[in-house]
Input
Amino acid sequence: MSKDARWLAAAAALAARGRPLSRPNPAVGAILVKRGRVIARGWTQPGGRPHAEAMALEAAGDAARGATLYVTLEPCAHRSERGPACADIVSASGVARVVIGCMDPDPRTAGAGLVRVREAGIAADHLPSPACEASLSGYLIAKRLGRPEVTLKLALSLDGCIALTNGESQWITGAEARAHTHAMRARADAILVGGGTLRSDNPRLDVRLPGLAERSPERWVLTRGEAPEGWHTLPLPDAITGMDGVQYLFVEGGAQAATAFLAAGLVDRLLIYRAPILVGGRPALGDFGLASLAGAHGKWRMSERRQLGSDTLEVYEASPCSPE
Output
């Protein structure tokens, strides 16, 4: 990995601090480097302002002159009532170089930010960065497809069950896996369960980790009926195009909701927590329309595997050629 790629990956890791509080703006990370040392850094603040570049440049002050700015997303080129365009701030900062990990698909910027920085006499490069793309995945999907990125979480026994035959499901996995699930909730704008799960379990769906309670996502239920106070309703999976401002949707249960989203081809990522137990109970999924075993292959690629106490987490991303 080149030096530039490493700094962009570091900026992408920094951007995670802004998610999901930065909504409706994307969580962006920025790092200022001078003579091989970090002199300032920034990430998108709660509510979307100030932007990452503005935070880093303000922190650096005059020291920004001659530095290289690494930023995960192309600096915005449009002014708004909430603040100036980042491309203008960067152009006036005195930095010597700008390296961008991902171009902005927003038509108000879409290359114009990079052009404006270059017109100010600053060397500016777009170095496509998988780390930056991954850190902005929900924003990019929202801009390109008009819907949130959907992560489906399944907590399973070894035989693929999510509950006993009598419906008991607390707890399939252990404390470490449940804590990891809460950390994943904290990265989502919204969390969804099916109507049956809501009625039977009355889940809180909040984030119960120290210091992260304020990152509890909006609660949604997949139903054509009424929702309790404090909940939002989604009549069917395709309606996620109307979830205003939601870039990251976490689908947590149960089997009918999971099956419905898979059948609609709307799952981008799978989080499978697998416990070393045999249950012989209720299966995790129903029929989601697979016509043949041949059609099941090549749909998913594993991107991560880790041990969480006695449980195992496997993360799968939908293959680019797959509608899921």
Remarks:
- The two ends are 30 Å apart (CA to CA).
- The first strand starts at residue 29 and ends at 34.
- The chain is about 25% helix and 25% strand.
- Residues 146-318 form a domain with the Dihydrofolate Reductase, subunit A fold (CATH 3.40.430.10).
